Amino acid sequence: MKKLKRSARLVEMTQYLLFRPHTLIPLTVFAERYASAKSSISEDLAIIKEAFEEEGLGELHTLAGAAGGVKFTPKISKASSLDILNDIRKQLELPDRVLPGGYLYMSDMLGQPGLVSEIGKMFATAFADKPLDVVMTVETKGIPLAFATATYLNLPVVIVRRDNRVTEGSAVSINYVSGSTKRISTMSLGRRALKEHSNVLIIDDFMRAGGTIQGMIDLLKEFRATVQGVGVFVESAEVEEHLVEDYISVAKLTSVDPRTKQISVLPGTYFN
């Protein structure tokens, strides 16, 4: 790569780091990429590190030694998270979201790339220090959130299916009880989709009683996997007891009145 002015190099290095989160990058990569001395690269990284931390974009860790380098960990500040939560609450509390039976329409929000990306960054911040191998979700509405989270954690995504598909090869299937309908349902995961003894982060869009998430936890036992965390976009507070106790939620749905179309949303456990 041709030699750049320092201002241009700083911009390019910042972009390089942002697109490679949780990846150890040796200083020699930057030195060769920009035809610059390691001392100059170290000075540039110090400037970027300061900017990241001042703006609440994340942390830049430096590892010394022959096998060292730098690693960018995306983070989002509590202040920025609260701003996102306020936007989420405004959208969720719109009266026309109330569906027959007291259900809440959220599909349009999960189709907003900017919003989904910010939620993914919140989950990535909450679970940044966990030893993780994959992000898991169940089809279909949780998929955008899982991919957004996995992008900031630099991890692959595993999708649990509602039924076994020929294209997945041999699979493990289990029956579970849906927490909202108390109906027996089936979920399956291809044996090639997840290595045994993996460390897994479960992400889901909505949790009422937690039957679906508990089903995924039970399914992971068949793979001898370890659940390192559970992240939920919206949890319902209108249940006496959740089947899942250890989880992080962004927002908490406290009440939905089908008659008056009044919706109440509070901060989730992420803000505790």
UniProtKB/TrEMBL annotation:
Residue ranges of every copy of the Bacterial purine repressor N-terminal domain listed in the record? 5-74
Q: Which SUPFAM superfamilies does the record associate with it?
A: PRTase-like, Winged helix' DNA-binding domain
Keywords, sorted A to Z: DNA-binding, Transcription, Transcription regulation
Keyword Glycoprotein assigned to the entry: answer is no
Phosphoribosyltransferase domain: residues covered: 113-254
Keyword flag Transcription regulation: yes
**Where are the annotated coiled coils located?**
none
Q: Superkingdom, according to UniProt? A: Bacteria
Q: Which family does it belong to?
A: Belongs to the purine/pyrimidine phosphoribosyltransferase family. PurR subfamily.
Q: Which PANTHER family match?
A: HYPOXANTHINE/GUANINE PHOSPHORIBOSYLTRANSFERASE, PUR OPERON REPRESSOR
Q: How does this chain assemble?
A: Homodimer.
- Protein name per its UniProtKB record: Pur operon repressor
Protein's organism: Paenibacillus hodogayensis
Gene it is expressed from? purR
